[in-house]
Amino acid sequence: MAAEGGERVAIVGAGLAGCLLAVLLGRRGIAVTVYERRPDPRVAGAERGRSINLAVSARGLAALEQVGLRDQSLKQALPMHGRMVHPLAGAQNFQPYSAGGERAINSISRAELNRSLLDTAESTPGVTLRFSQRVTGVDVEAGALLLEDADPEPADVVLAGDGAYSAVRRSLRLDEDADFLEHGYKELTVPPRDGGFALDPDALHIWPRGTSMMIALPNLDRSFTCTLFWPKQDFAALDTPEKVTAYFERHYPDVAGLMPDLTGDYERNPVGSLVTVRCWPWTRYGRGALVALLGDAAHAIVPFFGQGANCAFEDCIEIDRCLTETGGDWPRALSLYQERRKANTDAIAEMALDNFVEMRDRVSSPVYRAKQAATHALERRLAGRYVSRYELVSFSTIPYARIPARIRRQNRVLAAAALGSAAALGLGLRALVRRR
Ligand code: FAD
After folding, report:
1. 309 lines ligand 1 (CB under 6 A)
2. How far is the CA of 381 from the centre of ligand 1 (A)?
3. Where do the FAD-binding domain residues begin and end (predicted)?
4. Which ligand 1 atom minimizes the distance to the CA of 135?
5. Does position 166 have pLDDT exceeding 90, yes or no?
6. Is any atom of ligand 1 closer than 6 Å to the C-beta of 18?
7. Is ligand 1 within 6 A of the CB of residue 227?
8. Ligand 1 lined by 228 (C-beta under 6 Å)
9. Is the pLDDT of residue 324 over 80?
């Protein structure tokens, strides 16, 4: 493999991860060509079918900061300081994300974020963007990128950021498992009302309904994008506008009246799938080319912790870091990258699945709310020593893989302290009784 700068580097996919990586590599002086199957979304408009907005938090912001896009992205974002839970019966209630209520995750338009990254990539010397180029695979022995309706193109290093259904991953025939939830998702819109937001814009809204739920994130145009997460057969069951309206009036009564085009949206918008992809290894070393997967192509996760894009951005930062540490030695850098990231992406994949149960079910229970209040009280009391899982995932950049063990440790200490206090209280009471 040639020294850094000499090799032909291809990135597949000009999505969030592909663009960020192109900028990082371009800044290292590495010439890179990005192949994107879609036409340029800045000209053709954004593709529908993916989530319209995303929650970006500490990890994503830290990555964007590296390429000077943090502040610009925040200007295009709306902070959400907590969850607004809408139970079926009873009043909505606000649950702050952090103990002091000051921390927020940020609702940002996926299309705008992608546009900013594309603009930055395009203006980075050495980066070439090629749209409407569908990659079908990689011939690692010949060192060629295979394209639909075009001749193969030579490539020494291929970095595949082509999403959850990655063509590159499939062509490598890796050991992989794609685990689909029985739930799918569909997007609906709550438009502005009298020129303002129809719901509180400072919150991520959740309508927990047991096995299913709906969430809503605010947009800069004062609308909300709602996402229904339902078992797929439930979507199909509502097959007339009347059934849709009746269902929403019964199950989402406080928001049904805020969706004037509910039945149109419901009919038009597709049902997307939710998949967790686990595969290994993420790299393939052939005689002609070296390939590595990143972002959803390597580890798609379900969206219930709002971390897929944040995590994909972290991959890019890690690749860049590994190139620095190895002096630009691609094979060593990419094997270091996958070794460092795998445990982290496995950890967030599990936490994201677990958070689905929390969001659709637990958040509405009074016990859960009492536990949240107790957690925040502990966080205030033991600042820095007791930190909630949500805080560690969303408001820190500590590796995901360390979080479950840290939470277990904190809980053990807490249980021991509680037992200790109970024992001390017991002793105290016995002493008191003896004295009487
Ligand atoms: P993608 O964004 O999927 O980009 C892949 C790119 O590759 C696309 O541009 C695609 O057109 C291109 N491509 C695909 N195939 C080919 C091919 N054969 N040849 C050339 N190009 C190709 N994450 C968060 O952090 N916060 C959230 O709130 C959040 N909400 C979500 C809500 C939903 C409903 C879903 C489904 C996901 C959500 N995510 C969220 C996850 C996030 O969308 C993904 O993790 C993120 O987009 C991954 O980025 P990526 O660049 O790896 O892949």
Report:
1. yes
2. 39
3. 9-348
4. 19
5. yes
6. yes
7. yes
8. no
9. yes
Q: Among residues 344, 346, 345, which one has the least CA distance to residue 399? A: 344
Please state, in angstroms and rounded to a whole number, the distance separating the CA atoms of residues 237 and 292.
42
How many angstroms separate the CA atoms of 325 and 327, rounded?
A: 6
26 within ligand 1 shell (Cβ under 6 A): no
| Residue 427 banded pLDDT, cuts 50, 70, 90 | low
Measure 190 CA to ligand 1 centroid, in angstroms: 24
Closest CA to 65 of 302, 250, 316, 323: 316
Q: Output the six-digit token pair for 365.
A: 């229970």
The residue extents of the domains of the chain are 9-79+106-178+275-358, 180-273, 366-435
> What pLDDT is stored for residue 382 in this prediction?
82
- Helix H or strand E segment including 78: strand 77-80
Q: Tens digit of pLDDT for each residue in 349-404? A: 999 999 998 888 787 788 888 888 888 888 888 888 889 999 999 999 999 999 99
Residue range 9-40, pLDDT digits in tens: 999 999 999 999 999 999 999 999 999 999 99
d(CA 16, ligand 1 centre) in Å: 7
Phi, psi at residue 110, to the nearest 5°? -60, -40
Report whether residue 137 contacts ligand 1, using a CB cutoff of 6 Å.
no
DSSP state at residue 240: S
Q: What are the tens digits of pLDDT across the range 66-101?
A: 999 999 999 999 999 999 999 998 899 999 999 889
Structure ipTM: 0.99
Pick the atom of ligand 1 nearest to 295's CA. 52
Rounded to 5 degrees, φ, ψ at 192 are -60, 155
For 181, the token pair is: 């939830």
Pocket test for ligand 1, best of 37, 64, 112 (most atoms within 8 A of CB): 37
Superfamily of domain 9-79+106-178+275-358: FAD/NAD(P)-binding domain (3.50.50.60)
Phi, psi of 127 (to 5 degrees): -95, 125
Spacing, Cα 366 to ligand 1 middle (Å): 35
What does the buried/exposed string (b/e) look like for 182-193 if buried means 16 or more CB atoms within 10 Å of the residue's CB?
Answer: ebbbbbbbbeee
* Distance, first Cα to last Cα, the chain: 84
Phi first, then psi: what are they for 99, rounded to 5°? -55, -45
